[in-house]
Amino acid sequence: MKRNFLTIFLIGFVIALFAVPAFSAKVITLKFANYFPPPAQQSKICEEFARDLEQRTDGRIKIQYFAGGSLLKAQRMYEGVVTGIADIGLAHVEYTPGRMPVTEACDLPIGYPTGWVANEVVNDFYDKFKPKEWNNVKVLWMHSTTPNVIISKKPVRTLEDMKGLTLRAPGRVGDTMRALGATPAPTPIMETYDAIAKGVIDGTNTPYETLRTFRFAEVAKYVTSSWQVGNVYTFYVVMNKNSYRKIPPDLKGIFDELCGEYKERMALMWNSIDFAGRAFAEKKGVQFIDLTPAQAAKWKEAVQPVIENYVKKMVSSGYSEPTVRGWLKFLHDKIDYWTQKQIKLYIKSPTGPPEVRPSSFQ
Q1: Could you tell me the mean pLDDT of each successive run of 10 residues in the chain, 362 residues long?
Q2: For position 190, what pLDDT does the model report?
Q3: Sign of torsion, CA 325 239 90 271?
């Protein structure tokens, strides 16, 4: 009897011994802040990241997701992550002008042909130069919008057609529009539809996807695919450094691997939403215009002062001119590299050279 009792006791002790780690493993909860509204694809892909992270870590890492600026507005995202209000945050560098001046080089009108290319290039730029402006956070990955295009009530086929137009274009985008001869208006994006409809402005300089997401195709009937000079917005997904350190070693590899996967998934997401924008616009009868090679050359020459002003500003801030021009050369070289890569991978985009566009667009 005593022997049976002892056997049962030992078996129970061994089971309890091995069960303790499973039940005592601490669950880490991370707060992820994003300013995009929940229905946006940019928001949905963050929710997918949260679900995948929880699943791959067997529930040991959970994410509380705050969309629509409910935890942090875009302008306060970076500081909010640094101070720990959020563990992870998503926004873009133009919401805090001057805070990420080196990375702002990526937003210049240097000729990104597609969103996929822009996403790959901005990640390469960060990986290559590791600007010190990011030292206070853990950068999980960078991403980018697709290139801006001219969405207007009037057809724009030549540089001369830009004169007299008033287009929604804040900040650096406004500098580009001014260089092209238009009058930029810093109209809030949520007010742009009504401003175009009422004739307050003639249109906007935003990506294809806004034709659907903001329904600009209902009020502007022409799109000029001016990707050769289209600005992009460089986005970031960053993490509080202390929050990253708290992730156990056995989960860090899973976390880092998932971030690498979502860097590419985000690039494909930005690429795909432009198709939805174009399809919506085509149903509304919007006419799409491509710049001729001769016109594209004129437009690129016209925006050179915007690029040169950036160089002068950075030199006056203490950077050497060869260093700044080295950033720009790197960006141009990587644009060429990833454009050829996109062609070889048969990744189609609504913008860019004919080789990456579906035949129905040409």
Answers
A1: 47 44 69 93 96 97 96 96 98 92 97 96 98 98 96 98 96 94 92 96 96 95 97 96 96 97 96 95 97 98 98 98 98 98 96 91 74
A2: 84
A3: positive
Domains of the chain, residue spans: 28-108+116-144+233-272, 149-232+285-361
pTM greater than 0.70 (yes/no):
yes
CATH superfamily of 149-232+285-361: Bacterial extracellular solute-binding protein, family 7 (3.40.190.170)
Architecture of domain 28-108+116-144+233-272 in CATH? Answer: 3-Layer(aba) Sandwich (3.40)
